[in-house]
From TrEMBL:
The lineage of its organism: Eukaryota, Viridiplantae, Streptophyta, Embryophyta, Tracheophyta. The keyword Chaperone does not apply. It comes from Arachis hypogaea. Pfam families: Rep_fac-A_C. Residues 103-231 form the Replication factor A C-terminal domain. Belongs to the replication factor A protein 1 family. InterPro entries: Euk_RPA1_DBD_C (IPR047192), NA-bd_OB-fold (IPR012340), Rep_factor-A_C (IPR013955). This is Replication factor A C-terminal domain-containing protein.
Amino acid sequence: MQMICIEQLKINKEITTQIKGQKIVALTSTLVSTTSSTKIYINPEIEDFTQLTYGTDQHEEVIEIPSQDNANTNLQSRMIRNRITIQDLMAMQWESDYQKKIFTILATINGIDDKFGWNYVECEKYHKKAYKKGDNYICGTCNQTPQYPTIRFRIQLKVSDQSTTATFVLFDGEAKKLLDTITSNLITIQKSNDLEVPPQLKNLCNLTLIFEVKLNEFNLKEGSQQYTVTKTFVPTKNTEQQHPLQQIKQVILKKSLI
């Protein structure tokens, strides 16, 4: 059984402090006895609630709902997680299966690399890319034609920071968030070749974002310099002023020396 912390419900502390021990709270907007409006009952004299109060395991874990402050703290921590420069990223090499592979980089989008288009067809069964063969698409995993193929974003971004430039690959989830649309909408309104970059994608240019990047074996073992973006964040004054890059790099360096 999961119990919600009373503090999270913002119930008047003067009421709750008058009741000792476990507190069972019932919230209702339906008819209860003779009351018809929305009511909050604390430790009501009802058999079911009495059993909850005195019949539960005293060692049972009580799970509290995370506060908004904690959520914001976790988000800010993720925004500066293993912060490095693009040059640092490109210098990464394979060390072991346990080495850090997720980093954050503050960078600016300078353009869209449309050499390989901006979308791909996905097999609905294996969620992998399907390749065009004649008039059909064939899944590279199951070698079958997808019955319900889905068109997904795959956008190659030309990005830069104070150190150098690189190519970051933005996939469907983050692309939809930044563009506030889906691929099918852009394809519908686009009259020219679907490989050509729609004007909407060009709106990403000149945006400065925090990119969470995950290195893979192609990067670490084969030297590929196309990096997969797993998350994007809008930089805030708080994170960038309180956690400048040099300070973050020094913390990472100290940890590596311990």
